[in-house]
Amino acid sequence: MSLLRLCAFPKYLTSRLMIEINVGHALNVDRCHICLRIHNNCKRRTQENPWTRHRRHYSAISRKEDGDKRVLEQYQLVDVLEARMHQLQSDAVLDQKCSKVDFISVLQGEKEISHDQSQKAASTTKPENLKDCQASKKGIAVDNLSPITHTSRWFEKLAREKCNKAKKQHALRQKLSDKADTAKHGKGSLMLPGTSIKKISPGKKSHPEPKHSPTPCSKPCVANPAAEEFSREAELADVEELDKCGSRWNPASTARLLEDRYGNQYSDSQLRVRSYLEACMFLGDTESACQCLLHHHQHIAKRTALCIGAYNVLLRMWAKKGLLSWIRRTFVLLEEARLKPNVATYCAALECMGRKPASTFSSVVRRCLQQMKQDGLSVDDVFRQYVFRQDERAAVLRAVHVVQPNYKPRLAPEGPPCSLPLLKSFYSEREGSRYPKMDFSLEELRERFSRQLAIEQSNTITIASVEATKPITENMARMRKLLEEQRGHWRGVLLQALRNSKPLLHSSCLTSWRVNIYPFLWLLHDEDYVDVMLQGLAALPPSGESLLIMAREMGTRVYNIYGIRQKKRSQLVNKLSRIYRSYAELLAKDTKGSSTLPREHWSSLEAETHAGPSLLSDDAPWPLTLIIELGSFLVDLMLRELKVCKDILSPSPEGTLIPVLYHMYVFRSNRQVGFIKPHPILTHIQSEAMEAKLTFDSYVMPMLCPPVPWTSTKSGAYLLTPTKLMRTEEGTVQHQLLLEKVRDEDLHGVLDALSQLGNCAWKVNKPVLDIIISVFNNKGSEKLDVPPPVSEAPEIPCFNPHDQGLTMSEKAQLRRDVAKAKKTIAEMHSLRMDALYKLSIANHMRDEIFWFPHNMDFRGRTYPCPPYFNHLGSDLTRAILMFAEGKPLGLKGLDWLKIHLVNLTGLKKRSSLAGRLEYANSHMDDILDSADEPFAGRKWWMDADEPWQTLACCKEIANASRSPDHTKFISHFPVHQDGSCNGLQHYAALGRDVIGATSVNLMPCEVPQDVYSSVAQQVEAFRTRDAAKGMKIAQVLEGFINRKVVKQTVMTVVYGVTRYGGRLQIEKRLKEMDDFPKEHIWDASQYLVQQVFCSLKEMFTGTREIQDWLTESARLISKSGNTVEWVTPLGLPIVQPYHRTKNHMLKSNTQLLNVQTSHDSQEKPDTVKQKNAFPPNFIHSLDSTHMMLTALHCYSTGLTFVSVHDCFWTHAVDVDVMNKVCRDQFVSMHNQPILQDLSRFLLKKYCSGLPQDTKNKKFLEYWKMAELLGKVPQTGDFDLQKVKESIYFFS
């Protein structure tokens, strides 16, 4: 304290004491507990020496460790300081303004409040609380109130509190008495159910730690003496808990969803603290980590942000340093937090002791193992479940050998085989299974692994752009040179700015306990952050990008690079290389065959190579708010530092510097959104330069070696790049946690199917690629769906808004024209860049063999991981992909190629297979002409529905038909078999609906039934009837109702499309008709969508009943406060992530960012989304199950198989075999009691705990829900075995 403040302090205290004495007399008129406490405090303070109070307020905690006595004194001093802080906060009379006075409800007979509860009460006065803010607006200056007036306000407040809390206190006493009856065997009343407290304590006093130990951890970590001292704390905690539960929904299911099997919790605040601690551990910053954890631990209100994983991070840091005394103190913190140690906790303690001489801690090791046994854990659990890094495994093993010299880690015992009925035979009956080999030698596969590993370690890859093939003009060369010079300058500027900003963040970190992004800016090299910023600048479109999206993308890129660096730091690469080199023996063509699946082989190799680090990762995922905050910091740097000369495009650039990026606000759906836009100078330079190079993240590219098989929910796909098994929005964790709680054996079918899809090798169709690139560089083609460059966009109209010659309506029309032109330019740029990325990646891989690793969405639908270039893309992308493995066409292969060609044209959808083959043979001249002269010939292929795939198929047929023997022609071309409105097929099979099954080709027929044409005919019949009655809109629609108009609505109605969405779909189709009167579009689309829904209701009665049952079930489940969950027939657990929107306000230097999340499981479920999405999501989970079953059985028969959801691909020679497998697995799946199993699951999950009081409103709601869930819709008489005979089920 400065000398001036010391001199002024006694005078300040003297005036303060007079006020306190008067207040004490004024408040003495009432004898309630709260007022007595205030009175006694005031009286005690008047009797104290002023310097005593000064010392209590301003004492500094020494940073030196002077022994146990000093630790105890510090702890007591912290108690006094915290109690004093609450006393000053509650003593509102001494403040200049009074916003609100809160009272803590105290049970009868209670005389004092502990300092921990004081903190809780103080935390309720923060202005973030809406009620507090409202109260603060009504605040009155205390100086203007007499003591009597102010005292009466206190009495009124107290009376109100007593009246409102009387019933709650009565219920609380009953609750506490019940807890007291159950608290036995030495357990404290605060013990959570199933929680035990453990503490490792040595037999004798250990030696003091060295003086260079981190300073923050000299803070006290002393356990409270007995649980009885917390009795009042328990009561007050329960009062507050009852208050909160009165205004919130029951979070029991949420708590279970956001907690893994090790006790780690995954709320946003907990993830943020864990991520901060892990970042500190990665940097070796023990002091900051300790400060952060102790700060949250010592404040009860903030302790909820800590879970067992946060303490384990600190334990891991102490274990690395071999500081056993700090391990003990952290165990004391766990005891205070009432957390149960898990495998990671004990493993850190064993690791610490393993780094010490064996004779020193043998007794401690023995007691540690005994406590593990009491908690139901074994040493084998440590080596099976813990994620080791670097040499941690060896250190733990050394500690165990101290008391068990002959111990050897045992491999996880083989669990019971998969119990799912659909997979039991697949895993148990493997005789005759011939798993396919790859057409590569062992050395080739190992060499490919080395190349892929190098790419992922470098994080990014730079490839040539297809625009580089254009001739370079003088202006283009000048612009490229100018852009390169500017980027070099910007790199240096950003690097210096980043280094200058870190000390500022560090100083704010020292003065504030808030977890900030400072340590996250040290996880990578400074150059890596600059690369991320420049990469974001290069990808910024001319129309700009939302600040929120830009920040999220840049933050995610930093997170991915950090994940790769972490794996490299943990010495994982060497172990991964050894395992993959052995794994390649299973796939190589020059090794003996095996009946082992890739997942099984990889798991066995990993178990055999048990030494060293684990291949898994147990790091906490970064919360979305942290990712955006980190990204927004980088965007702020770019906005502030990137500048360019205003006259840079002139021959002699001179002038002032202007920002390269600028921030602006635009309106999107009546919401103001912050946008980052590039300056037109930068846009002009980039467009004129047509850069020859493109830089991508490594995961954007296909893999050069077979992906790592999925062996668990956290291991698979890329070698180093972090990949989720279930792709979700950033910040969504409930799906991953739900997967981790499933028995491992029950997920084997899903994991093996994903591994099989990823093992399909691909190559580029070079002749077709060259044709597409030539069209792309020649201004594109709208007819062929090749986007033109932005230079071909319409000009933006120019007008003066202040022109007096224009009327208001003309100005409004011109503004609409300007907005439309700008939107068109933005869309053209987006489409052009998407095509540029796809073609450039394909051109880069033109001479390579590559693979697409797969994962899935939360419904189980599978997707390739590379985002741009994959077989799920558009017609253009699919046309340039072929199987790397070729197979002879055989006897029927050429016929299947021709049938596939006709399917691509879309001309003979209602013809039989024989009719389609006859049509192809009759047009062989057109097919050969298209293959030989795509642009100079008759151009027959351009009129097809899928023109580029049609051209590719024409070339394949031409090559096969011209070969000496087409049966021996080696074909790499994938042939597709598409489901006939697959969603309705599943509904018809579930309901055993004969009429519906016939409409979607489940019933054998001579010609394929087209449900879209059937619906169009039914709608036309309705229109004819209404037109005869004189309805005008029905008369206008004469001649315009066809298959194309109703197809999209029929296709999507089973996936939950509403009448509003269906009207928009039909409106779009009507607008495409040039001769339809535009003034009738709205009325016509409204009329048609009603008739389409009526037609479907008549044709698919069983489908509508099942859909209604699913919808109503989801409505009641979500209304009860739960999200809808179910398990697919393949054992995949699914939860719908639709919750009420939650807003997070993040402050950046540019603007306040409003982060809206609808997947936060701590919020109430969104009933509308839950009920509308359940039917389509349930059907999607069934079609993904059918696809995975088909993939597994095709793999066991040696077929190459991939899928695009309900469209299955294989070689032409194998189409008949794949069709048989597809039909067999569909029948096998629907022979299971799917709806009955769903009903039993929902009843067990949501209706197992009905209220006992039958007059309770909750009982009636639960009874209604239980009645509905148990009432499965009736089914029809359709025989599923007929599907096996249906040719057009998939065709």
Automatic annotation (TrEMBL):
Its EC number is 2.7.7.6. It comes from the Eukaryota. PROSITE patterns: RNA_POL_PHAGE_1, RNA_POL_PHAGE_2. It is found in: Mitochondrion. It holds the Pfam family RNA_pol. DNA-dependent RNA polymerase catalyzes the transcription of DNA into RNA using the four ribonucleoside triphosphates as substrates. DNA-dependent RNA polymerase catalyzes the transcription of mitochondrial DNA into RNA using the four ribonucleoside triphosphates as substrates. Component of the mitochondrial transcription initiation complex, composed at least of TFB2M, TFAM and POLRMT that is required for basal transcription of mitochondrial DNA. In this complex, TFAM recruits POLRMT to a specific promoter whereas TFB2M induces structural changes in POLRMT to enable promoter opening and trapping of the DNA non-template strand. Has DNA primase activity. Belongs to the phage and mitochondrial RNA polymerase family. This is DNA-directed RNA polymerase. It comes from Electrophorus electricus.
